[in-house]
Write a structure and sequence with these properties.
By secondary structure, the chain is of the alpha+beta class. It contains 10 helices and 9 strands. The strands form 3 sheets. It has a 4-stranded antiparallel β-sheet with strand order 2-3-7-6, with no helix packed on it. Strands 1-4-5 form a 3-stranded mixed β-sheet. It has a two-stranded antiparallel sheet with strand order 8-9. α6 runs antiparallel to α7, α8 runs antiparallel to α9 and α8 packs antiparallel against α10.
Length: 389
């Protein structure tokens, strides 16, 4: 495994690091409305400087960055503590799918506004009875002249109430086999008949939403690819999502580890920092070992991709390990704080303004999002170990 960087890659890193040093993102607002406005302004600033959608082809507004340069971009953004880009669904899934399968008219209409964050995109895949088993979706779209009439429900849709467009899957041929008769389309979120209902999470956030479609009219020209051919488009979408997430999760775990170690050095245990306590040191050592295991797993996946390999079931190994490791790390952080770990934002005695308890509650959903741990274990058992269904 060659972990060195070429001169061009090092120049790419130095240019980005210099720009980030001169243009720090600034503190993130705590309330969601303000954060969305902040996120749009930050993404526009990146776009104006040529740093948005670096992996997109240059002809569509990107830099045509290589996979290694994409990793470098993520590393430097993490190093600068820059926020996730507000239009992440559009940048990592919607845009690449349009580039691969969209018409010239669709590309001209949407791609630049995805990059500038003028139009925010969300993803309408999961449904109440079709989450991990996506092909079981029940949302229906019936052709009526030059439009489809859309009825159904989606759930766990991130930033839906701020979104301008939703890329979704709908069943257009109910008599076709399970993975057939599904169409990939994009829906204007201002269309009559759409209801967005925020979902309040255990940590108080409301960035997830339910979507209800009641006789929503979707122009036929909003279909991506072919009618009834949406399943392969969905696979393309998920492959882009997984490739993006594989190394970003490793970076998240590395950042979380650094912050956990810093907490242990700062927070006292009776008359000494937690980092001196033998039991605390065992937890910190486990967290370090887990983080290194995650790093080398990500590097193995990166090496395979650089050699031309397609994403495979090893992505499930990475996702399963990361989500459960992240939970363990935050359980350790809260337990190391003792009673202080129960105090949330606003309490005068909360450590780091209650951030650790907040993240601990947030982490509970990581073993559900992007495929639950149970689904990931089934994939590993069947496709990696060759066990019977």
């Amino acid at each position: 495994m060659d972990l060195s960087f070429s001169k061009d890659e090092e120049r790419f890193r130095a240019e980005l690091r210099t720009w980030l040093g001169a243009n720090p993102p600034g503190p993130e607002p705590s309330d969601l409305d303000s954060w969305v406005a902040y996120g749009k302004a930050w993404q526009r600033k990146l776009y104006d400087a040529g740093w948005c959608g670096v992996h997109w082809p240059a002809e569509y507004g990107g830099r045509g960055a290589s996979l290694i340069e994409q990793i470098i971009f993520q590393q430097e953004m993490a190093r600068a503590k820059a926020p996730l880009l507000i239009n992440l669904a559009g940048l990592t899934m919607g845009g690449p799918v349009l580039i691969a399968h969209g018409t010239d008219e669709q590309k001209k209409r949407h791609l630049q506004k995805i990059l500038t964050a003028e139009e925010i995109w969300c993803q309408g895949f999961s449904e109440p009875n079709a989450g991990s088993d996506l092909a079981s979706l029940r949302t229906r779209a019936v052709l009526d002249g030059d439009s489809f009439i859309l009825n159904g429900q989606k759930v766990w849709t991130s930033f839906a109430r701020y979104a301008d467009w939703c890329m979704l899957l709908a069943r257009t041929d109910p008599d076709a086999p399970k993975h057939k008769g599904i169409t990939f389309m994009i829906v204007d979120m201002k269309s009559p008949g759409i209801t967005v209902r925020p979902l309040r999470q255990i940590n108080g956030d409301e960035d997830f939403n339910e979507l209800f479609f009641e006789d929503v009219r979707v122009p036929r020209q909003n279909v991506i690819g072919t009618v009834d051919g949406g399943w392969m488009i969905a696979i393309t979408t998920l492959m882009h999502e997984r490739q993006t997430l594989t190394f970003s999760r490793q970076l998240q775990s590395s950042i979380a580890l650094d912050e956990l170690l810093d907490l242990a050095r700062r927070f006292p245990s009776v008359d000494r920092p937690l980092s001196s306590d033998p039991l605390a040191r065992q937890k910190l050592a486990r967290a370090y070992i887990d983080s290194q295991a995650m790093r080398y797993t990500a590097l193995r996946n990166l090496t395979k991709a650089l050699r031309g390999g397609e994403p495979g079931p090893e992505g499930s190994i990475e996702k399963l390990f990361w989500s459960e490791m992240y939970q363990r790390m935050l359980v350790d952080a809260v337990s190391l704080l003792g009673p202080f770990g129960q105090l949330l934002q606003g309490s005068p005695h909360a450590v780091d303004d209650g951030r650790w308890g907040y993240l601990h509650l947030y982490s509970r959903g990581r073993t559900i999002a992007a495929g639950s741990s149970e689904i990931q274990r089934n994939i590993i058992a069947e496709r990696v170990l060759g066990l019977p269904r």
